[in-house]
Amino acid sequence: xxxxxxxxxxxxxxxxxxxxxxxRRPSENCVRIYDDVVDKEWCNKVIELFENSKTERFNTxxxxxxxxxxxxxxxxxxxxxxxxxxxxxxxxxxxxxxxxEKFVQIMRTxxxxxxxxVNIDKLHFPPLIDMENIRIKKYTxxxxxQFGEHVDVLKGSKRxxxxxxxxxxxxxxxxxxxxxxxxxxRYNIKCKPKVGRLLMxxxxxxxxxxxxxxxKGTKYIxxxxxxxxx
Length: 230
Known about the structure:
Layout: H1 3-24, E1 32-34, H2 40-51, E2 56-59, E3 63-69, H3 74-77, H4 92-118, E4 129-131, E5 135-140, E6 146-150, E7 165-172, E8 178-179, E9 182-184, E10 189-191, E11 198-201, E12 209-211, E13 214-216, E14 218-228
């Protein structure tokens, strides 16, 4: 065999080896879990707000839970000329302000940490950032509450603004004895609810996920998204 033929064959084998290594190399899943980002006392304060407010029930079969949008509470809506309702005999505003400020601080701090951990260059991160309304959700062990398999970006319009989302923040406010995990289906990751635990991941088709049924206990979460800014 000529030297050139041997060299060609050798390069072919080397290429096949490199390709095989590339296939086996684990890819970056961009899912991160941070524990103890906030104390139990603050989590209980958020839960108290939820339990003493009028919540919205989602009951579609695919998703079943109760939700409170803290950016759309009665007193906040009062600015639009709607009646104001007190929270435990006090104004909503100081309670909501404290919760919002703390959660936004958590988002800012862990956005920077996430970028470092996932090795995201600032040049590749949106220069203008907005955020979505902050929502509190409750899932009980009634055999129904869950959020079926889904992704968080599907439609783009003035009514459906999910296309502006680029990063998910889910903060667990309670421990759950059994069930209630957030399952990242492509990556075989199950995040168990734990007080003060923060889950972060991209909202796109790359990260289909689901909220498993709570078998024993009650799951409370507070969550929001970062948006591409205008």
